[in-house]
Amino acid sequence: MHIKGPAQFPYGYNEIAAIGDKEQNSLMDFGILHLAAGESFCEAQKLERAYLLIHGDITIEWENFSKKISRENCFDFSPWVLHVPNNIEVTIKAAADSEIAIHRTKNKRNFSSKLYTPKECASENRGAGTMREASTRIVRTVFDQSNAPYSNLVLGEVIDMPGKWSSYPPHNHPQPEIYYYRFLPENGYGFAELDENVIKTRQNSTVFITKGETHPQTTAPGYAMWYLWVIRNLDGNPYIKPYFIPEHLWVTKPDAEIWPYK
Fold this sequence. Notes:
262 residues; seven-stranded antiparallel sheet; 22 strands; single chain; globular; mainly beta
């Protein structure tokens, strides 16, 4: 099964993926924590973890630190993300209705906890000037091998403009990946390619890319699509860059001749 959802998430932690799930084989825990105003959540696990605020107003506490953070929505504002190693206790207290994406995986390395600010997760425009703007999108990379080589995760967000593509040209990589989706307006939809299969994505869908499939994405005209992506590095084979399918790379050239020819 490549997709879960769409779903409605009640208050509390809603598990979507689990490290030991042999069917999905993502090697990661992933879920959505939904808190009402006044509610709190606390955990300390022997796992590397990342907590990404999708929207809301929370106080997050770890070690001897405490920080009030807020995010109006995931389309117009960059995220706050807390990244911690094994056994660090994390407490989240909500001052308003809030949703937090929680990622966990095994990692024996010890490293310093870090709270990534929205400025550190700034929006990057990609695709401009190529493919007649058919793949213009926003990418926000939180951490990868360049700034967190000790991590077994790579984490970020993409926003597809209405009617446009991302993760294009088709590419793949051996490391397992999870995509989690939101749409604006919420009744929007898109499509995810997984090699020769195409899956319809909706609000709160989750797609599993765990067999090295190609995975371009597109969203229907009129609907912006935000998706959270998280990659699990493999032992001795961390994610550095994808492998692009050569036959489609020509479209990225600024002088590519695309019909109707000018």
